[in-house]
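Thread: quick sanity check before group meeting

JM: Hey all, I'm pulling together slides for Thursday and realized we never actually wrote out the predicted structure for the chain we discussed last week. Dropping the sequence here so it's in one place. If anyone has concerns about the input, flag it before I start.
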Amino acid sequence: MMKTDMPHVTWECYELNEEKLRDKKFVFDFLNYFPGALGLAVIGEPVVHKFKMSDKKPGDGVTGIVILAESHLAVHTWPETRYAVIDLFSCKIFDIGKADRLLRQFFGPGRYKKDLVYRGEELIKSGTEIINSRMRQLQQSQPTGRPMALNSKA
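JM (edit): ok, ran it. Output follows.
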């Protein structure tokens, strides 16, 4: 597997504080703080929606997202089960260990399951194939005995 510069980290979080997971401001504050602490650039304010409990559909969780210059950060909570999912995708490398520590500090005691995938592996393969093919074409079009100039504007 080729490692790209596009980490996609998700955390499944269990046994968290129910009140934090119901708190729209808590989720907003997390979305507002977390990306900057990792050196990622926020574009605009986080958007956070609080769900209301009803007889037909129990649950009063919160969902929030913030758009990053590098991609996105999303939070989904289910307070009635003390469960949350945090989803961070970036086209810029960041300190994943630091992200894990900060997230656990912010949400507090609980059980955390982190999954990490580097997206775009096929792009690297196809990009490498395209570059290699183009280099072969350029080499074949150069007169023999003359070095190829990579930056020439022929």
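AS: nice. The longest helix spans residues 121-141. The radius of gyration is 22 Å.
JM: adding both to the slides.
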